[in-house]
């Protein structure tokens, strides 16, 4: 029966349906949160007990933010793949469906893979990797579409102690090459092609291109579409052939809690993407615990996270979180608008999805298509909704709540980052009233703090830079090969604290509202992008002298990419060149980095010491000309009028 929710101003109370049978009421949250900060050792040991340890840790917390040295469960040994699969099979849950695979086309049959079958698949892949020469500690690059074999590849690496580095299937050959080179990976797992909205993505072709720049020992190719690909003798192996006859047993490697599990590249405000390193024990406990409490998962439920395994959300909340919790997770290969704009809802209806987790950009795009697409399908199975990746505007929140969640599904707005491994700030469905647009409350063990630009701590209802003052189990430990960069990026701005790079407001009820990045990182459709990366790609073009890239508000994407470009002397700008530059960035980085606007300018506004005044460029891109602030320190203040004129012309 549909519940009517009484709205109290901006507060939406916990729906009665969410209180029933919840694993965490408000009283429990308060009690557990207090314990998690008063007695972290006891609290986290208790959470860790849900997992199988090969050697139980005797030590829980062991960290410092000054100097930076982060360790959890230091003397414990475990294998996360065994916790995701073997543990459930041993407990008699082998017949429970682990993954439901919904292919790109609704006409292609779906697949349901039980825990026992998934374990067999992972063992086969693990032994194939061993046959290829992969050893504990080796880095393996995974470049796969959203098919179960992507998850199988990750779990197989984890099983044998290899460190995976998943590269999102939308990234370019250059981006793959850079990541292979940075982590010195000798092995690649890819598919022949991917499918997205009936279009084929040449995954193996892109790997071949990348391998013209860097070399690896072997490439394992999973046959998916059956499309034509080139195989290099001696280097490339078809998975279905090479795996023939491998052993059907493979004991999971005993990993130290602090052995690296994976590297995932993410954008920062400067330089090339950083290889964020997560280790085994803390990450395992963090993803299992956050999955369990944030989604209040109940046995038998179908859970669907629409992220790609190439992002951290896919790592933590398609693969490691749900599988360690023994859940049934849906994996979708396609896109929200193929064959039509109702695909998400058709899939929810078809598989009777109970928990649905997606990004605000997708909600906004689908909202724009109208309610009819939602109404066509029976969404009564939905019990809980979630969002991640960027702030959600209250209008999109309300639409999601009313039209998708039929006014009785709690929405969890989960704030977290690649570096945090899992959820950090979110309401818990059975415990907290919701405020549309606010992520809510800190998760167990998370101690947020707001500081001003000088690092002074701000108390009460206020707004500032979001820091976290204590370590949590799922925290990233380092940047691959560059610990100093890790320290400089996250711990140098405010000594002794982890700085998130986000701005945040805390209201009178101690709810947290993320306001967006305060550094030169932009968030395009929930994807993090360093403006510096787009700038470096642009200046690689032979006609470009200089560029400055900023974000601007975009109705669907949240933020769009605005590029100011100065051409070499004598080169005349025109629309053709703008188009060429757009394509150039797409090929250099990938389609997610496509510029929305290119504005040519004879020069960039700089201070006399040569620093680009980004504040001014941001305001102009936002069409906010009234508050440009002080422009008198510019070397050439007259440039600004030309920039405004250029903006008005587009
Ligand atoms: C999980 C993920 C992290 C950045 C983060 C913040 C933004 C993520 C958010 C959110 C507001 C939320 N972000 N979740 N902002 N509300 N619920 O997205 O990781 O790709 O590393 O991005 O995304 O700005 O700093 P990642």
Keywords:
single chain; 650 residues; alpha/beta; eight-stranded mixed beta sheet; seven-stranded mixed beta sheet; globular; binds ligand 6R9
Total beta strands? 31
**Unreliable sequence segments:** 1-6
Structural class: alpha/beta
What is the average of the pLDDT values? 95
Question: Strand order, biggest sheet?
Answer: 12-11-8-6-7-14-15-24
Q: What kind of sheet is the major sheet? A: 8 strands, mixed
| List of distinct ligands in this structure | ligand 6R9
Number of contiguous helices: 20
| Computed Rg | 24 Å
Shape estimate: globular
Beta-strand content bin: 15-25%
Note the gap between the termini: 51 Å
Organism: Croceicoccus pelagius
Protein name: Acetyl-coenzyme A synthetase
Binding site for ATP: 389-391, 413-418, 502, 517, 528
Enzyme class: ligase
Structure description:
This protein is an alpha/beta fold and 650 residues long. The chain is globular. α10 (281-294) crosses α11 (312-324). The model is unreliable at 1-6 (pLDDT under 50). 53% of the residues are buried. An 8-stranded mixed beta sheet has the order 12-11-8-6-7-14-15-24, with helices on both faces. Strands 5-4-17-16-18-19-20 form a 7-stranded mixed beta sheet, sandwiched between helices. A 5-stranded antiparallel beta sheet has the order 22-21-23-25-26. It has 20 helices and 31 strands. This is Acetyl-coenzyme A synthetase. Mg(2+) binds at residues 539, 541, 544. Residues 29-84 form the Acetyl-coenzyme A synthetase N-terminal domain.
């Amino acid at each position: 029966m549909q519940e009517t929710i009484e709205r109290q101003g901006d507060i939406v109370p916990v729906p009665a349906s969410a209180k029933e049978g919840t694993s965490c009421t408000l009283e429990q949250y308060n009690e557990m949160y207090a314990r998690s900060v008063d007695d972290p050792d006891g609290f986290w040991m208790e959470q860790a007990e849900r997992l199988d340890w090969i050697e139980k840790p005797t030590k829980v917390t062991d960290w410092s933010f000054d100097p930076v040295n982060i360790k959890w469960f230091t003397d414990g040994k475990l294998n996360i793949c065994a916790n995701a699969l073997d543990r459930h099979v041993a407990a008699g849950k082998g017949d429970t469906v682990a993954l439901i695979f919904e292919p790109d086309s609704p006409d292609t049959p779906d697949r349901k893979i039980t825990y026992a079958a998934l374990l067999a698949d992972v063992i086969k892949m693990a032994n194939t990797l061993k046959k290829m020469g992969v050893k504990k500690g080796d880095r393996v690059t995974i470049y796969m579409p959203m098919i179960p074999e992507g998850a199988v590849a990750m779990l197989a690496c984890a099983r044998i102690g290899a460190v995976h580095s998943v590269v999102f299937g939308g990234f370019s050959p250059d981006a793959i090459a850079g990541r292979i080179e940075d982590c010195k990976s000798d092995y690649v797992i890819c598919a022949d092609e991917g499918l997205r909205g009936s279009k084929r993505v040449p995954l193996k072709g892109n790997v071949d291109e990348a391998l013209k720049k860097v070399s690896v020992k072997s490439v394992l190719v999973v046959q998916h579409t059956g499309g034509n690909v080139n195989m290099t003798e001696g280097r490339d192996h078809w998975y279905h052939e090479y795996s023939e006859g491998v052993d059907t047993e493979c004991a999971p490697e005993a990993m130290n809690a602090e052995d690296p599990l994976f590297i995932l590249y993410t954008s920062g405000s400067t330089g090339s993407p950083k290889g964020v390193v997560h280790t085994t024990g803390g990450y395992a406990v963090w993803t299992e615990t956050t999955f369990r409490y944030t989604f209040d998962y109940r046995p038998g439920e179908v859970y669907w996270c629409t992220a790609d395994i190439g992002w951290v959300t896919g790592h933590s909340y398609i693969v490691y979180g749900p599988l360690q919790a023994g859940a049934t997770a849906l994996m979708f290969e396609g896109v929200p608008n193929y064959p039509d704009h109702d695909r998400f809802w058709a899939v929810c209806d078809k598989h009777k999805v109970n928990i649905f987790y997606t990004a605000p950009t997708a909600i906004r795009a689908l909202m724009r298509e109208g309610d009819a697409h939602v109404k066509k399908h029976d969404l009564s199975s939905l019990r809980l909704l979630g969002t991640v990746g960027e702030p959600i505007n209250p209008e999109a929140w309300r639409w999601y709540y009313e039209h998708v969640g039929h006014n009785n599904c709690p929405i969890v707005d989960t704030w977290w980052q690649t570096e945090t491994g899992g959820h950090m700030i979110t309401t818990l469905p059975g415990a907290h009233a919701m405020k549309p647009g606010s992520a809510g409350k800190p998760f167990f063990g998370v101690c947020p703090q707001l500081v001003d630009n000088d690092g002074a701590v701000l108390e009460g209802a206020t707004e500032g830079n979001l820091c976290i003052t204590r370590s949590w189990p799922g925290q990233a430990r380092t940047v691959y090969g560059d610990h100093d960069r890790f320290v400089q990026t996250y711990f140098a701005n405010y000594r002794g604290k982890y700085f998130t790079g986000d701005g945040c407001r805390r209201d009178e009820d101690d709810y947290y509202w993320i306001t967006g990045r305060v550094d030169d990182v932009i968030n395009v459709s929930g994807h993090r992008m360093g403006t510096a990366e787009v700038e470096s790609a642009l200046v690689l073009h032979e006609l470009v002298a200089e560029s400055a890239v900023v974000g601007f508000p975009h109705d669907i994407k949240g933020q769009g990419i605005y590029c100011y470009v100065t051409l070499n002397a004598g080169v005349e700008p025109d629309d053709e060149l703008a188009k060429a530059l757009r394509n150039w960035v797409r090929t250099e980085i990938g389609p997610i980095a496509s510029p929305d606007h290119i504005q040519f300018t004879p020069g960039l506004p700089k201070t006399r010491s040569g620093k680009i005044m980004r504040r001014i460029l941001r305001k102009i891109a936002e069409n906010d000309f009234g508050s440009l602030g002080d422009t008198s320190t510019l070397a050439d203040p007259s440039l600004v009028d030309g920039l405004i004129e250029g903006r008005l012309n587009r």
